[in-house]
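Allow me, if you will, to draw on your knowledge of protein folds for a short while. I have a record of one protein: its chain in single-letter code and its fold written as discrete structure tokens. I should value your view on which stretches of the chain appear to form regular backbone elements. Thank you for your consideration; the sequence and its tokens are set out here:
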Amino acid sequence: MKKVYISFYLHGNMCYDRYTKQEIRAKFPAIYANGIRAMHRFPEVTAHIDFPGLTLLSLKHHAPWLLEELQPLVARGQVVMVGCQYAASHAMCADEESDLVADRVTMEAMRDELQPDISTFFSQEAPFHQQFPYIMRQIGATRLISGPEGWSRPGRVRGIEGSELVIYPTDSRNCRLDRLEEFYDSHEDGDFVMTGGDFEMLGRVEDFVAKIQELAQRGKIIEWMTVDRYERGRHSRYGRCAFALRSRR
């Protein structure tokens, strides 16, 4: 039976300049907690959560209870932690060295605080350039969450110096609650696309669960997935070259 896969991708960015720091520190952790507690209630739901380093340290100082609630989800593999530039700086507005340092600082903080084996990254605003595979290799990341147009499953890309990187596609325009049936119908067996965006805009996890259950009753199977589970399944079947080498435009 045909089966397609989804997961939430959630960008926990407390580096905004739209609000005061006081408002962000007071309100954002409570908003994040709604999603984390929903995932405790629905253990089948998966998420890939990125915290820029500055966000992680803000939570550690102002809302350590949130990290304590998150840790069990990470420990059981329901949530995969993802890196991002330290202060959510834009990779297309930085030179290679500056971006590398911003990436590395976050990954080191994530390894210390939440997930020692973190190997997935999201670049602020999801840009891509041909130095990304090299930069990711320097910080110990083998995967990049991005938004390549038209991708329906992960694929490999090769950088200018030969390094390779697996890109996992996210598409919040087409993979969303009100289009889940259309998403299923338009994808092939084994496709995997993430949905979501800014953590504070997650909405009701319960509605996703109910819709996926309703589709399953009609034989349309959408299953929650993580990058780790997906790779274990594909590599056990296809070996090291499980992901096709693609052009990232």
About this structure: The mean pLDDT is 88.
